[in-house]
Amino acid sequence: MLTGAVMPELPEVETIRRDLDAHIVGRRISRADVLDASLVQAPAVDVFSRRLIGGRVRTVGRRGKYLRVQVAESWMVMHLMMSGRIYLQPASERVRHTRLVITFDRGPALHFVDTRRFGRAWLLSVSELDDLMADMGMEPLEDGFDGPKLHELLRDRQRAIKPTLLDQTIVAGIGNIYADESLWLARIHPATPAGSLSRRKLDDLAAAIGTALRTAIAHGGTSFRTFADARGRPGRNQERLNVFRRTGEPCPRCGRIVKRIVIGQRSTHICPGCQRIHR
DNA sequence: CATTGGACCTGACCGC
DNA sequence: TGCGGTCAGGTCCAAT
């Protein structure tokens, strides 16, 4: 059993959440081995492990790109950042770059594997969890995320729409892939000032974000690379991407050649035919 | 306030 | 084969 041969934006984290929900809820933690202390943000590593052991997993949730596992009365929070992965496999099967292994009373262990070591974990009380999540923006898959809501969130903002979508305090969970895909779907140039988008374009954008995220979840997320030693199921959504990392290929809608530009220091992929700067 | 640039890490890949 | 440069799905912090 393996989950997480995918890279983490909202759909990938949601895919992992569903796997964990199906496989670790109700299990009791028997070991918690932190192999890289820099992963654990709070509390101290020894307290983190000690407090987990003996606890039973109650729920597995997600907020934006954060995974939240309720263990007894505490919340174990994980953020995978750029290269984090979660594997469910026997505790003894350690791949390279394993940072944390949580072993249960039965079934596979949870492995947090992270090449670049940007990923983080916390074990928090309810109020500490609330503090950590305090600045998070709206969940784009929740009811009420629509054009009028985007209008409310984006009006008066001069910043380009793409970095605005990546700002987790406005909308939570969109990353570089789904920002590009959503803007392409809505035919919006990523450099368009957010506050200048018409009501109609904002309707399109809200719908496009929902479509991009839901499609990706339905296909198990996006994976760009599989590892020689990784077994299991990579995501399949990369086959459905329209512009992201498709530089030089034809736009599926109009046939113009997809171009890579840089906006806000991030790689950005657009169709120069479909996505023009205006309102 | 908003915006920009650098830092944090490791590895893959490309051209020479 | 080796070396240097570039790139990578994210976030935080300091400087402007």
Key terms for this structure?
22% strand, disordered N terminus, alpha+beta, DNA-binding, four-stranded antiparallel sheet, 279 residues, 7 helices, five-stranded mixed sheet
Describe this entry's structure for a reader:
There is one protein chain. Helices cover 27% and strands 22% of the residues. It has helices spanning 10-23, 45-52, 126-133, 147-154, 161-166, 176-185, 199-218; strands at 29-34, 40-42, 57-63, 66-71, 74-79, 84-89, 98-104, 109-114, 120-124, 259-263, 266-270. It has 279 residues and is an alpha+beta fold. A hairpin with a 2-residue loop joins strand 10 and strand 11. The strands form 3 sheets. It has a 5-stranded mixed β-sheet with strand order 2-9-5-4-3, sandwiched between helices. The protein binds a DNA duplex (16 and 16 nucleotides) through helix 6.
Write the topology of this structure.
Blueprint lengths: L9 H14 L5 E6 L5 E3 L2 H8 L4 E7 L2 E6 L2 E6 L4 E6 L8 E7 L4 E6 L5 E5 L1 H8 L13 H8 L6 H6 L9 H10 L13 H20 L40 E5 L2 E5 L9
Parallel strand pairs: 2-9
Antiparallel strand pairs: 1-7, 3-4, 4-5, 5-9, 6-8, 7-8, 10-11
The protein binds a DNA duplex (16 and 16 nucleotides) through α6.
Largest β sheet strand count, sense and barrel closure: 5 strands, mixed
Summing up helix and strand content along with how strands pair, one would put the structural category as alpha+beta
Number of β-strand runs: 11
The radius of gyration is 20 Å
Mean pLDDT: 92
Runs in which pLDDT lies below 50 for 5 or more consecutive residues are 1-5, 226-231
Strand order, biggest sheet? 2-9-5-4-3
